[in-house]
Each structure stands twice: as C-alpha cells, then as structure tokens.
Amino acid sequence: MSLKCFLPIVVVAVTILPEFSQAIPPDLPNASVTIPYSELKALWDAARPKAGEGRAPQSPVASILRSANFAITLDGRTTSIAADFSAVNLSENWLFVPLVGGEVRLEGYDPPAAQLVYREDCYGILLAPGAEEELQLRLSASAADEGFKIEPSPATSGRLTISGVPEDRIPLVSGAHASAMQTPGLRSYVLAADSGGVSIRLEKIRDGAEDVDLAPSRWEMVGEALATFSGSKITYESRIYLHADDGEGDEAVLVLPRSARVLTANGDDGATWEALRASDGGKLIRIRWATQEILDREVVLIWEVPQAPLAKRWKLIAPQIDGEVDGVESPFLFVVAEVEGLQILAGDGTRLPVSRQLPAWLRDRVTGDYVSVSTRGGALELAPRWLPRVETPDATVALAKIKQKLVPGGAVLTKASYEIEHDAAVKWLVVLPEGGEILSCRVGGKVSRPVLREGGGLEFSLPSLKAEDPKSTGGTTWVEFSYASQYAPLDPVEGVLQIELPLTELFIQQIDWHLEIPGRYQPTAAEGNVEIVVGKKDAAGLHFRKQLCRGVRPGIELYYRRAE
Fold first, then answer.
1. Helix intervals (H) in 335-402
2. Nearest-5° angle of CA 499, CA 503, CA 508?
C-alpha cells in the first residue's frame, strides 16, 4: 500500500528561461497537487539544516591553564608571592578561568590590560574566544610563622618555591611534593593537580640544652591492596596510610614476607626507600621523607611474591609496621582479581564476599571479577580452585565436495575436496574405504605427501595460519586428494552395490556427494546415512548430502538395473 499526501497548490517561481520570468501564473483556486509521501519527506529533509553543518570540530575542554608557578619570599613578618600563569581559551565564547584562591591578597598584576576578576572566592581572568594570556600576580599573605594557605587551580604544570627561610626556622608544607631538584637557599615543590590547596607554616628549630632529638614516631597503619595472580607470582599494588601522634614523622619501616620482591615505594614530600634484611631474615622497607613532624603519610607500595599455580592454599600476608604499637592490629583490605578459569574461595572452601564499597583508586584499577576480604594483621589463607575447561576442536570441516565415477567393472575413482577451518597447525587424519589407493594430494594448493598411520589412516599436515598473519583469528585450508577403489563388478541385469566415503573424526558441517554411474544402468533405489538431493538427479548420476556429522563414515546401498 502506498501513502500519498494531498496538498493545496503553492505558487513556485521558476527562473530556468528568461522569457518566462515575467509570466503571470494562472489563477487556479481549486487546484491540488498529489505527490508520494517519500518525495514530500525528501523535500522536507532538504529544507532543514543538517546538524553540525558548517561547524568546525569543538575541543573537548573549554580552557587550559598551562602553568601556575608561585615564588614565595619570606622577609621578617611579611610574605610576598609572585605568581605566573599561562592560560588559553579554546572555546568560541568568553570564559572565566580561575587562577588562585585561599588566604592571599592581591597587590598588583601585569599586564595592566588583563581582565582580572575576583569571583567564587578566587582570582581569575576573563579570556576572549581563542585568546591566550600570560599573567603575573603580585600577592601577599600572613606571616609564615602563623601559617597560610594557597589554593591554586589545577594546571598542566605547577611549581612552588620558598626563599628567605630564617636559619632558626623550618618550613612545613602540605599539599605539595618536594622536588628532587633542590637549590641551596631555595625550597622547591611540585604542585599536584588535585591537592586541594597548599598549607605553609614556619616552625622554630629547637636549640639549647633542653632541646633533644625527637623520638621516632610510632605509626599506626591502615592499608588496601589489589592482588593479581599471573603465571607463578602474585603482585600486590597497595595504598598504605600511616598516622602517628608524635615523634619525628620522617621515617617508617615496613615488614614484608621474606620472599617479597619490592618493585616500588612512593610517597609525597620527597619520599625515598631502601630494602633491608632483618636479623631473623625478614624483608624490611625503610621509607624516609624530607620534612619532619608530618604525622599523616600515604605510601604507594608495590611488591610481588612467588606463588605456585597448583598450590591448594594461598597466603596473603599484609605488611606490618616494624615496632608496631602493642595491642594494635592493623586493618588491611585485600581485593583479589580473579583470572580466567580460577575461582578464589576462603580457606574453608566457602565463597568470599564481593564488596561494592571499594576505595576510589581500587574502583579505577579493578576491571573484571574480584573478591574482597579484610584482615587485621598476620596472614590470610585462601583456597584457589581451577575450574575445568571445555575443550574445543582444533579444526572443523566447513564443506566437503565428493565426486565419484563408477565403471561397470566395479572400479570407482574418487576426487575429494575438504575445506577445513582452523587457526594453528593441525594434523588431520583420514581413513579411506577398505582397498582405497591414494593417487594425488594437495594441501593449500601445494603438492603434499600424507603420512601413513596404523590402521591405514592418512595424516595430512595443515600449516598454521598465524604464521602468515599474527593477528589472524582463523581461516580455511583446502585439502584435495583422489583415490581409486575396487568393488564387485556390476551385474548385467540388476543388483545392489555398497559404496562408502572417507572417514574423519573432525566435525563436518556439510558433505556434497555426486555419484556418476554407467549410462547403461539406472538406479532404482538408494539407502544409507545420507539424504538424496531432490532436483539434481539425472541420467548420469545421483546427488547426496549429509550435514552436521562427526566420526561417521557416509555410505549408501545403491540398487540398480540395466536400462531397457
């Protein structure tokens, strides 16, 4: 059924020929035009502007703060800050780009023509569409002895330096990482994009007879780790949070299993680490920080331990604090990523829980199935179970084409072509009918000589398809061979003849079989484990088909008689 639309006629101006440009259209008040709906829709779509037509691709971000560098100079009880920024507007609109907030006051800026604005508790700059701007702010803050906070906006590159530190003072900086490149008289720090602000305070260095070195801090620990099994080892990627109530705060020693191999131990404030051996043979990791009396620390610790894949028990051993506070058991969360074919169970064989309240960094790292379990010190025992795998065949036969010619003396010539789907190299075994004699063979278009196996089987070697294309996901190889076989001579009047095809253990999707018989005979019936293809029967032969079989030798009993 076709859909048609009836519309009132509309006056249309056509300017194809000049002589008709002044023609007056006839007055047809009752006229109508009928057009198919498809043509109406095409006119409607052509009149509507296409989405995004004529527009250039848009940037995924509206602006970039390329750099934010702060030079802090201490002079007595005043603090001056020179802040340099580089910003760019990538959008087609005016933008407000925030620069810095916190406990700072503006003293001046360059260039004077810059559109500096105080908005949303911070200083920022207004940028025209596509504009790039470099800006220097002159700021001041409270005395460093009292402490103050700077809140820089996230920038691609951010640095902070402190100069003019009195000899009897030491700067305590949180929210920034001490730079590995330090200059005499100048403290350098790297700003983290997600620091949330930088707090700066000067503390007096103790001196005199009553001043003694601070005692080492006695740390308390909370930890989280992602455990991943691979090959013959378990790799632990952990976040360890340390807290102390007093002490130096610039050193901590962690205890790991003896067989642990530490890959890295990172932290803020210029953290460095070294591996030590305890008197009892245990593995120690000493971590040192640049600044004293920071009593809350975060350490990223990655280590690995050997693990036999077929072991019936796994032990997850959490790190411990050397000299841990008596009576305190450090809580530790293990998230164990399950690998394909491996199920992780508790030590008693029960299923482990799957926590949905993982820390943010673990949610980003875990991409597949996992289990989670908590411990308070010591070792945690797990029972891994390898699940049985379902084996799939190395190859299958997509199509087999068999052509046979039967002569009155009972001899049969067979030409067979097999399209075999496979990926890796395959040994394919074919058993010819009894008395069959191989005449020729080609594999992938090349002449081949199959190996004769016990029981009369012929073994064909199919090459690996990945050798030609490492990214291949599989393909096909054609195997073609011919053979001769001898049956009883055909009876001059009528009889029955049993004919069989080659046998293979591969799964076969379809066999197309054409049997040509002598012209003086005509078939009267055929029985077997194949189906007769209707519509292809002719005086010269018969057509059979067999689908979806494996380990079955196709064959028929052919009844015939002499043609009149």
1. 360-365
2. 110
pLDDT at 13 over 50: no
Q: Which H or E element spans position 47?
A: helix 37-47
Residue type, 487: Y
pLDDT at 323: 67
pLDDT cut 70: percent of the chain above it: 85
Identify how many contiguous H helices and E strands the chain contains and give both numbers: 2, 43
Burial class (CB in 10 A: 0-12, 13-18, 19+), 77: exposed
Nearest to 213 by CA among 183, 257, 238, 247: 247
Least confident of 399-403, 491-495, 534-538: 534-538
Instruction: Check residue 8 and give its pLDDT.
Output: 44
Q: Report phi then psi at 205, rounded to 5.
A: -80, 130
- pLDDT tens figures, 84-94: 999 999 998 99
What's the CA gap between 107 and 139, in Å, rounded? 5
Which amino acid belongs to residue 16? Answer: I
Distance of CA 411 to the CA centre of its chain: 61
CB atoms within 10 A of CB 484: 14
The pTM for the full model equals 0.46
Q: What is the DSSP letter of 259?
A: T
Cβ atoms of residues 255 and 332 within 8 Å: no
**What separation, in Å, do the N-terminal and C-terminal C-alpha atoms of the chain show?**
58
Quick one: pLDDT at residue 536?
61
Q: What confidence tier does 52 reach under pLDDT thresholds 50, 70, 90?
A: low
How crowded is residue 294: how many other Cβ atoms within 10 Å of its Cβ?
Answer: 18
In the predicted structure, residue 432 carries a pLDDT above the cut 70: yes
Quick check: helix, strand or coil at residue 80? strand
Do 447 and 482 form a contact (C-beta atoms < 8 A)?
Answer: no
SS3 per residue for 383-405: EEEECCCCCCCCEEEEEEEEEEE
With helix as H, strand as E and coil as C, how does 404-457 read? EEECCCCEEEEEEEEEEEECCCEEEEEECCCCCEEEEEEECCEECCCEECHHHE
Q: What are phi and psi of 208, to 5 degrees?
A: 95, 170
CA–CA gap between residue 509 and residue 547 (Å, rounded): 5
Comparing CA positions, the residue from 453, 541, 544 lying closest to residue 504 is: 453
Per-residue pLDDT, averaged over 118-138, amounts to 92
Do the beta carbons of residue 395 and residue 420 sit within 8 Å? yes
